[in-house]
Amino acid sequence: PGVGVILVAAGSGSRLGADVPKAFVPLAGLPILGHALRGALSCPDVAEVVVVAPVSHLAVARELAEAALSEHEPSRVTTPARQAESSTTDDGDVCRPARSAAYVSTRAGSGEPQRRVGVVPGGAERGDSVAAGLAALSPEVSVVLVHDAARCLTPVAVFERVVAAVRAGAPAVVPGTAVVDTIKQVDETGRVVATPERSMLRAVQTPQGFRRDVLERAHALSSDATDDAALVERLGEPVLVVDGDALAFKVTTPADLDAARRILAG
Ligand code: C5P
C-alpha cells in the first residue's frame, strides 16, 4: 500500500525568534524544510509527500520540494509544478481548496511507481494544518505519516520502523523515547496532583503513522490536539509506541538550532 507523508511546516516558530517561519530558517545552507524533505524522501516506502506551508511561503516550499525530489530521483525528469484543477496562482490566498494544490512529480520510468510532492497552505493550529494535508493526499495512499518539518534530522530508520508497524497491523504508531526527568502533573496553581511512574512514560516524536481510514475518522471528530495520536486515542483505537531516536528532536529554540548546526557540521 502507498505511504503518504503530511509534512507540517506552517508554524510561525515564535519560540525560535527568527524573522522567517521556522521551516524556512537556514540550517547548513538549506532551509529546515529542505532537510525534512530529504529525510522523508530517503525512505523508499514513501510515494507521496504533501508539504503544508504558510500562505506566505507556498512558492518557496514548492521550489524546495522540487529540488528534494530531483535530488532523490537523479535519473528522472522532474516535471514543472502544475495546477491540478485551477489555473489561479496560489500565493497570498488564505484558504484555497486542497485539490488545487500544485503538485510536482517525477516522470515515472516504465513500471516504476511515481513519487509526488504537493504543497498546500496550512491553518491556524497544527491540527488544522494536518487536516489540510490529509484532504490533499492522493486516493492511492493508504498509510499516512504525519511528520513535523521541525524534526528535520529524523533518521530514516524511524520512518521505516513506523511504516513496518502500521503494515504489520497497528492502526496507529508513534515513535517514542524514555524520559530522563521525573514528570509531574500539576493544576492551574502549580500544585502537583500526580507523579506518574517514570518507567511507564514516553516522550513521543514524529513521524506518527496511521491507517488512513483511522486518521480520517479521528480528524472528522476534531483536529484539536498537540499530536495526532491523541485524536486516535479519543476514538478508542490502540496506539503503539515504537523506538524513536534522539536525532528526531524538534527544533524549537535557538539552542536546538545550534545543536542541529553542530550535528550537521559533523
Ligand atoms: O509549534 P510546534 O513546534 O509544536 O510545531 C510542530 C510542527 O507543526 C512544525 O513543523 C510546525 O511548522 C507545524 N505547524 C503547522 N501549522 C501550525 C502550527 C505548527 O504546520 N499552525
Please tell me about this protein's structure:
The protein is an alpha/beta fold and 266 residues long. It has one domain: Spore Coat Polysaccharide Biosynthesis Protein SpsA, Chain A. The chain has helices spanning 32-41, 58-72, 126-136, 156-167, 212-221, 228-234, 254-264; strands at 2-8, 26-27, 30-31, 46-53, 82-83, 102-105, 116-121, 141-148, 172-178, 185-186, 192-194, 202-204, 208-211, 240-243. Helix 1 (32-41) runs parallel beside helix 2 (58-72) and helix 5 (212-221) packs across helix 6 (228-234). The chain is globular and about 55 Å long. Residues 8-11, 22-23, 52, 122-126, 129, 148-150, 250, 252 line the site of cytidine-5'-monophosphate (C5P). Cytidine-5'-monophosphate binds at residues 8-11, 22-23, 52, 122-126, 129, 148-150, 250, 252.
Written as H for each helix and E for each strand, in order along the chain, the element string is EEEHEHEEEHEHEEEEEHHEH
Count helical runs.
7
**Mean pLDDT across residues:** 89
| Residue runs with pLDDT of under 50 for 5 or more positions | 82-100
What form results from the Cα inertia axes? globular
Strand runs, count: 14
Cα radius of gyration in angstroms: 18 Å
Query: How far apart are the first and last residues' alpha carbons, in Å?
Result: 36 Å
Largest sheet data: 10 strands, mixed
The CATH superfamily label reads Spore Coat Polysaccharide Biosynthesis Protein SpsA, Chain A
Bound molecules: cytidine-5'-monophosphate
CATH class call: Alpha Beta
CATH topology: Spore Coat Polysaccharide Biosynthesis Protein SpsA, Chain A
Strand content range = 15-25%
